[in-house]
Write a structure and sequence with these properties.
Rossmann fold; 2 domains; six-stranded mixed sheet; four-stranded antiparallel sheet; 7 helices; 10 strands; disordered C terminus; binds adenosine-5'-triphosphate; binds magnesium ion
């Protein structure tokens, strides 16, 4: 049984078809990396998996049931920016996920429940290497540390699925390498299924077990919004290096601009 399955999945905003003809199965434990030109619908796709955007047509199932239309503890998310709360410390940012769950209306928990949440949060913070920064606020952290914090927050509820939207896009190359090691370790240790959007094809190949390229197959110059993007390449990454023909093919399709510092 596949963890996730889409059949003829579509997403529209009014007359604007953003995504169309999405058909796929993803098994637990896969690490799918997503690339595609800006505005082609990658974030929209991730939001459908998260449950903050509804599907327009077709089906999208999780464990063979329609994907819930709200976020749940089984799916964690990290965006490029603004994933963490600026007014909360490192510890507060990670605890908040559990506190919100425990008392949805109050946003605070008490006594034993709070101690439990604190222990859990400390463990997650240790996993991402931020134990020395428990009392710091996000603005006191480097970009890499902020993304470590966002990852700890996303993993607080022990999700099965981790959704990453260009999480390392704003980081220096040196820091990015450390983040890659972290994410691969967490993926393996916690047996996560990961979807990661990136503009860096090299990163896509370095991390994923499977690469999806989003692009439009149909174009109407008179009505640019009439057709959406779909998955034009679905490649298993065994050798973790881009095959020559993919490079040529992407370049031909004008996807060269996707990546500046990458292989193309
Ligand atoms: N809430 C919304 N209402 C209307 N249109 C939207 C909404 N969200 C996204 N769109 C449109 O859907 C298209 C896809 O947007 P999306 O953010 O998913 O692209 P993307 O592939 O993530 O781009 P980027 O690489 O720049 O992040 C865009 O044309 C965008 O304007
Ligand atoms: Mg996006």
């Amino acid at each position: 049984m596949s963890l996730l399955e889409a059949k003829r999945l579509e997403k529209h905003y009014g007359d604007h078809v953003v995504l169309e003809r999405l058909d796929f199965r993803v098994d637990a434990g896969e690490f799918v990396t997503l690339v595609g030109a800006s505005g082609c619908g990658k974030t929209t796709f991730l939001k459908m998996l998260l449950g903050t955007e509804r599907i327009s047509r077709g089906s999208l199932t999780l464990d063979e049931r329609p994907i819930p239309d709200e976020p749940g503890p089984d799916r964690g998310v990290v965006f490029q920016k603004y994933s963490v709360f600026p007014h909360l410390t490192v510890l507060g940012n990670v605890m908040i996920a559990e506190e919100l769950r425990q008392s949805r209306w109050l946003g605070k928990s008490f006594g034993a429940a709070r101690r439990h949440a604190r222990d859990k949060a400390m463990a997650r913070i240790r996993e991402v290497g931020l134990s020395d920064a428990l009392g710091k606020y996000p603005h006191e952290l480097s970009g890499g540390m902020q993304q470590r914090l966002a990852i700890a927050q996303a993993l607080m509820m022990r999700p099965r699925i981790l959704l990453l939207d260009e999480p390392f896009g704003a980081l220096d190359p040196g820091i990015r390498q450390d983040m890659h090691e972290l994410i691969l370790r967490l993926w393996q240790d916690q047996q996560l299924t990961i979807f990661m959007i990136t503009h860096d094809l090299k990163e896509a190949f370095a991390l994923g077990t499977r690469l999806w390229v989003f692009d439009k197959l149909r174009h109407d110059p008179q009505a640019p919004q009439a057709y959406g993007a779909t998955i034009t390449y679905d490649l298993p990454i065994a050798q973790r290096q881009p095959p020559q023909d993919l490079k040529a093919s992407l370049a031909e399709r004008g996807l060269k601009t996707l990546t500046q510092e990458t292989l193309l």
